[in-house]
Design goal:
single chain, 4-stranded mixed sheet, 366 residues, 4-stranded antiparallel sheet, 10 strands, alpha+beta
Length: 366
């Protein structure tokens, strides 16, 4: 099977790599993260100018309708740079979902500005009482159509213009049926946003709705689940890019760091452990390739869940190993190693654990 990228995919890969090379190093990344929104508005505008913000959206919305291969290629390249701009959460998750479930008149007012990067939306779904899966929703729709409830974790929710909120119209908190989607503007009355830092330094918010006015969308929880497949693929591709970054940096370190008069990389035990992590990266990339070529078939969802079920724990283990090889320096802010490991921790647990992904792969969870 031919896994060579076509001309457009090569161009997108080169564009993402050039963005990383020109605008990312450790000091600048720390500066981007320090912004109140958790990323650089200037870099977000630049990504929009380069077309990477709009690219995952449909051509009708000004995008390129990227397929799984193009999305994986772009996000693996961005992962190698530890890019902090929230393309996954604000574009692949929220903007694509809004494009999918918004009535035509509402989409017309939003999609152009989302594609241009001048406005952002975030999906507010996760609640404190959830324990794996997607169906737990207590946020409720009042008789007047307003919303009441708390969404405990909304990644990349700081500074957005609106939230896509899952809310219950009927049934108990764990029922699949009875959940609808609503658009809530961030500056609407009854909307309170409390920002906080996730383990990787990015900003999430707790969204509290107290009789907040909302616009009903036409989708359901099934749309959230199906829309998240490409986002899950992107998260795994990003994790593989970070794994490669940490592995390459550690390999260089082991070749140059000397102990007992020889390089650390000459010790057989270290060689075996690095070989095991090299094999893990290759396994992860093989599963990514399987997912990419499965798009359009019934096996795509299963391949994406299997990819995540493998990559999430394997990436965290690789991070542990790379930190240990660096010793105390591995956990400091002076090296990419600790920063990358923190990002891998978040990717491995959000939006659900690898155990849930494994259950989905095994077919015991919808």
């Amino acid at each position: 099977m031919n896994f060579d990228l076509n001309e457009d995919e090569e161009m997108l890969k080169a564009l993402a790599e050039r963005f990383v090379d020109d605008h990312y190093d450790l000091d600048r990344r720390r500066g981007y993260l320090a912004d109140p929104n958790g990323f650089s508005p200037a870099m977000w505008s630049l990504l929009a100018e380069l077309g990477l913000v709009a690219a995952p959206l449909s051509m009708e919305s000004g995008g390129l309708s990227l397929d799984a291969t193009a999305i994986a290629t772009v996000f693996e390249a961005l992962g190698r740079g530890l890019v902090v701009e929230p393309l996954t959460e604000n574009i692949l998750v929220a903007a694509r979902l809004l494009e999918r479930v918004a009535p035509a008149d509402l989409a017309e007012g939003w999609m152009e500005s989302l594609a241009m990067g001048t406005r952002r939306v975030a999906l507010a779904h996760a609640e404190h009482g959830a324990r794996g899966g997607l169906t737990f929703v207590e946020c409720a729709v009042r008789t007047d159509g307003s919303l009441c409830g708390v969404k405990s974790c909304v990644p990349a929710g700081a500074g957005v213009d609106a939230f896509i909120v899952t809310a219950r119209e009927s049934g108990s908190a764990t029922d699949e049926a009875g959940i609808a989607l609503f658009l809530v503007e961030a500056n609407a009355p009854g909307v309170a946003v409390n920002p906080w830092r996730m383990a990787d330094g990015s900003i999430a918010v707790t969204l509290t709705l107290d009789a907040a006015p909302a616009t009903r969308l036409v989708g359901s929880l099934a749309d959230v689940r199906e829309n998240d497949l490409l986002a899950s693929l992107a998260r795994s591709a990003e994790a593989i890019g970070i794994m490669q970054l940490l592995f390459d940096a550690t390999l260089d370190y082991l070749r140059t760091r000397r102990q007992f008069g020889v390089s650390l990389g000459s010790f057989q035990a270290i060689q075996h452990r690095m070989s095991a992590q090299y094999a893990a990266i290759e396994q992860a990339r093989a599963l990514l390739n399987l997912a990419m070529v499965s798009q359009g078939s019934d096996a795509f969802a299963s391949a994406v869940h299997g990819l995540r079920a493998f990559v999430a724990p394997a990436s965290v283990e690789l991070g542990h190993e790379m930190i240990q090889f660096h010793g105390g320096m591995g956990v400091t802010d002076e090296l990419f190693i600790g920063h990358g490991h923190k990002r891998l921790l978040v990717l491995s647990r959000w939006p659900e654990s690898p155990e849930v992904a494994l259950d989905r792969y095994a077919g015991v969870l919808a």
